Amino acid sequence: MADAVMSPPPAPGAVRSPGVPDGRHHFQWMIGIWLVLMAAGEPIIYFAVGPHVPPGTLTSEATGAQFDFYVLLMLALPVILGVWIYMGYAIWTWRASRGGPEPAVGPYSWGHLGVQVGWIVSTTAIVLSMFVFGTYELAAASGAGGGQGPNPLFTPTAHRILPVQVIAQQWLFTYRYPTFGGFETNQLVIPANTEIAFHVTSLDVIHDFWAYQLGVKADANPDYDNIAYAHTTNQLGNFTVRCDELCGIWHGAMYNTGQVMSVPDFTKWAASTEKELAAATKLLPPFAWTYTPDANGADGGYYPDSNDPYSNVEVYGAQKVKL
Amino acid sequence: MGKRIAAVAVLFCIAVGLVVFTAMDYLRSNPPTLNLAAGHRPGQPVDLTLQTVGTIGFGTHPSWVSYLTRSPDGKWVHTTLWDVPAHTLVHVTIFQYDTGGPLRNQFLGHVLGTVGGTMTLNGKTVSLIDSNAGNGVAHTFTIPTLGIDVPLAANSSTSKNLCGAAPCTPNYVHNVITFSFMSPGVGQYPWQCFLPCGLGYLYGNGGPMQSIGYMDGFMKVVS
Fold first, then answer.
1. Which domains does chain B have, with CATH numbers?
2. For residue range B175-207, what is the model confidence (pLDDT) as tens digits?
3. For residue A297, is pLDDT > 50?
4. In b/e form, how buried is each residue of A109-124, taking b as 16+ CB within 10 angstroms?
5. Three-state DSSP class for B188?
6. Residue A171 is nearest to which of B144, B200, B201, comparing CB atoms?
7. Do A181 and B116 touch, CB atoms closer than 8 A?
């Protein structure tokens, strides 16, 4: 059937038939080339490219994202190879210098019902399967590291969760640890093999907390507690935090480096930092899930919502994470 | 006819050229860069002297708050761009002439990244300022990518001899802040004030807070 589409046009007035006028099975040739390249390409993606696909394996969410990219690559290869092979084969085989047919008009522009239906069905099936796959991956991985707002739809099943508050402001990220006395630091340190709840908020404009190698990305909005979950694996190492929302002159310099430590090392770090910063922590406002800048504008301090005399915004402090 | 078309084309090109030149000139207009690395001997520290003023008093934005830098020949220059040598101790002295208030984030009341984690405020060693107490904080000197932060204690807003226009002299009420830090390897390091001091702008973060030469600048570390 497909050979009819690929074959030279019938004489004017002739009835189209699925024959092979030039004696060559073009469709079979293309399928053959496609199968050979697929046989070579898919293992290359699986074994050589796959392990290097970002964002890495520091968290289950990052590992999940890596797997998703991986699946998309494996699915995309047959499609892109099919398009390129057809295009290359057509350009080579039916080029004008070899007596190729008129491309713009004539029988070749009539279309072919079988090919059209096949194309629509196959592409629809691929897109729908990716939709189902993507939705499952989003739900199964507790939101896949994305910010879910103050009342997350997809929550982790872990019994112990470490809350870490991410505070963005022009142009710096700082972090508060409510389970360690609420100290605030410019270092993001988290333990391995632990479920982390990042509570992302902002003191001024909209920022975006993007811990790239953790597979975590959540908008930082003022007066909003945006929660993103991530479960660290046993892998230790550093990761980069960047602002991913254009936020002013130093947006490009709004980044720092975080670290995944072993649980004993993290506990030691947190305890010593809590002690070291005890005097400074006393000067901080009481821990709250969001803080509202002074409505007067310049020289504004930051206040827990309930303490700010200028604020009438909703208090999200009731949203507690089970520890 | 042909000459007329050619004349119109030439005039059009000149007009476009003028527009492009003006736009590029505006975009490339930066304050001068003070080269503190010139003549530097390896192993010797360099001195960086700054002042902060509530209103610059001249230029295109006379009402804006600003930093100024003292050049090696002792003149105050309206700039926030400096070249310093790599891996060198930088001694910083800041004459702070402005009033202040609470920091948006009290975390920045910490002295961070300086030698010993401290600064001196009018001769007294300090490692933390409560910006919600006393006169508060006027500005900060912060290089986020190097983890350096120094809060600059404010003067009382009821003081009678506040400086109204730069450059200010020590006859006006002021605080003297000193600290040192090690310059890193070669590179460009943005620095800024973290107290939203852009009066009249949303959350105090516009105007001078987003302008090179006022409350933002670059420290260029050279070999």
1. 31-222 (2.60.40.420)
2. 999 999 999 999 999 999 998 888 777 777 888
3. no
4. eeebeeeeeeeeeeee
5. strand
6. B144
7. no
Q: How far apart are CA A266 and CA B184, in angstroms?
A: 28
B151 touches chain A (CB under 8 A): no
| Optimal mutation site among B197, B205, B216, interface A, most CBs of chain A within 10 A | B205
Decide if B105 touches A, using CB distance below 8 A: yes
Nearest to A186 by CA among B196, B185, B152, B149: B149
User: Are the CB atoms for B222 and B187 separated by under 8 Å?
Assistant: no
- Measured between alpha carbons, how far is B101 from B195 in angstroms, rounded to an integer? 9
For A9-34, letters b (16+ CB in 10 Å) and e give beeeeeeeeeeeeeeeebbeebeeeb
Q: pTM of the prediction?
A: 0.79
Is the CB of residue B157 less than 8 Å away from at least one CB of chain A?
no
Q: What is the ipTM for the molecules in this complex?
A: 0.83
- Nearest Cβ partner of B210 from A167, A248, A279? A248
Residue among B107, B129, B145 with most chain A CBs within 10 A, to mutate: B107
